[in-house]
Amino acid sequence: MKHQRGLSLVGLIIVASIVAFVALVGFKLLPSYIEYFTVQKVLRDLARSPEMRGASVKDLKIAFEKRAEIDNISSLKADDLEITKEGSGGFTIVASYGVKVPLFANVSACIDFEVRN
């Protein structure tokens, strides 16, 4: 064999460690993004809900607390929501929050999310 082709053992170890690192970071960050999409869905549903048309801001916050408990939203509380009433009886809801995810040792990822409806 004059010309060998393929991956050497050292190359395989390097590629495997890079893949393992990316997988570790991905698996640690995935729950935060799943929660973000859940928050997005809950706020969209609350803003468009027909039973919330004549409700007050306090009623909307209580409804969010109930939905957050059901959907296991722990990063955002009802007091963190910025709610403004629109003229047609609807609501505009803005939520800004941050999540700090420990990766390994003393390294953490800080993610800032903002949801607008």
Describe what this molecule looks like in 3D:
By secondary structure, the protein is of the alpha+beta class. The chain has one domain. The chain contains 2 helices and 3 strands, in the order ααβββ. It has a 3-stranded antiparallel β-sheet, covered by helices on one side. α1 packs antiparallel against α2. The chain is elongated.
By DSSP, the count of extended strands is: 3
Radius of gyration: 22 Å
The span between the termini is 64 Å
- Characterize the overall form: elongated
Spans of at least 5 consecutive residues with low confidence = none
Instruction: Count the DSSP helices.
Output: 2
| Helix percentage | 40-55%
Show the helix and strand layout.
Layout: H1 9-48, H2 57-70, E1 81-85, E2 91-104, E3 107-116
Antiparallel strand pairs: 1-2, 2-3
Helix pairs in contact: 1-2
